[in-house]
Amino acid sequence: MNAPHPTEPPDPSARPARLSVGVVGAGRVGPALACALRLAGHRPVAVSGVSDASRRRAERMLPGVPLVPPARVLELADLVLLTVPDDALPGLVQGLSETGAVRPGQLLVHTSGRYGASVLDPARRAGALPLALHPAMTFTGTEVDVQRLAGCSFGVTAPEELRLAAQALVIEMGGEPEWIAEEARPLYHAGLALGANHLVTLVAQAMELLRKAGVEHPDRMLGPLLGAALDNALRSGDAALTGPVARGDAGTVAAHVSELRKHAPGTVSGYLAMARTTADRALAHGLLKPELAEDLLGVLADSADAAGGAEGSDGR
């Protein structure tokens, strides 16, 4: 069930009181969320960071907010943002709980896409109020991130009694709550990573190939094309598929593979994997004619076999 649109205010009784906010982990996400909460009237009071880069980021985005150890952050704040890498989160929660840093009634919010609220169970047993609020956005670690939160979807997982509080906090940050079941968090996160993280890799590889082909400004060439492709895909899904694979142009695909082997061998396996997936989806949705699919899939299979043989020939 989706939450109301941000333009619809939450139940006033669920609106959080003005809270003191702390950040444990001054990476790219935490300071941006703290800034958004400050704009909503909350008060950042403490932040912790380990690396020099995180400490500089905190000082730039949260000027005047003291840099202190994590336990001190929890001591000072009513609402604590745990914005650390996924793999570090369980140990952090366990450590803070075992040392008595967690206070009863304290809102403890993590921003991991992978985990739901259950990763905060040690803190919950100590009396904390657990929320999983994951912004579905890529962050730069700069002030522009705060602006990007406007209209950003948040994957939200929370105990039933805290759903209204979670909704209110997300809306105050400019976001739109999307409720994710506890057991669905890894799948939810995989979908986002597949779409966003892998997109960066694909775009970077495409720009490298265009530069090798002599294109002076590959970003300018790709920008309008990728923008249109993304818009079409979001609107139409598989019906937006175009290009030689969807058309069944086996000869063109074979030429692509040949050129990639010569000029960018590191891209061959990725090209073949995506081409095969694209062919399967185009065939399933009636875009790729069956009589053309056979030759295309044959080219892809032969190219994959050749790539495997090349990798095996040097002992890898």
UniProtKB/TrEMBL annotation:
<protein>
    <submittedName>
        <fullName>Oxidoreductase</fullName>
    </submittedName>
</protein>
<dbReference type="InterPro" id="IPR018931">
    <property type="entry name" value="DUF2520"/>
</dbReference>
<dbReference type="InterPro" id="IPR008927">
    <property type="entry name" value="6-PGluconate_DH-like_C_sf"/>
</dbReference>
<feature type="domain" description="Putative oxidoreductase/dehydrogenase Rossmann-like">
    <location>
        <begin position="13"/>
        <end position="135"/>
    </location>
</feature>
<dbReference type="InterPro" id="IPR036291">
    <property type="entry name" value="NAD(P)-bd_dom_sf"/>
</dbReference>
<dbReference type="InterPro" id="IPR037108">
    <property type="entry name" value="TM1727-like_C_sf"/>
</dbReference>
<feature type="domain" description="DUF2520">
    <location>
        <begin position="152"/>
        <end position="277"/>
    </location>
</feature>
<dbReference type="Pfam" id="PF10728">
    <property type="entry name" value="DUF2520"/>
</dbReference>
<dbReference type="Pfam" id="PF10727">
    <property type="entry name" value="Rossmann-like"/>
</dbReference>
<dbReference type="InterPro" id="IPR019665">
    <property type="entry name" value="OxRdtase/DH_put_Rossmann_dom"/>
</dbReference>
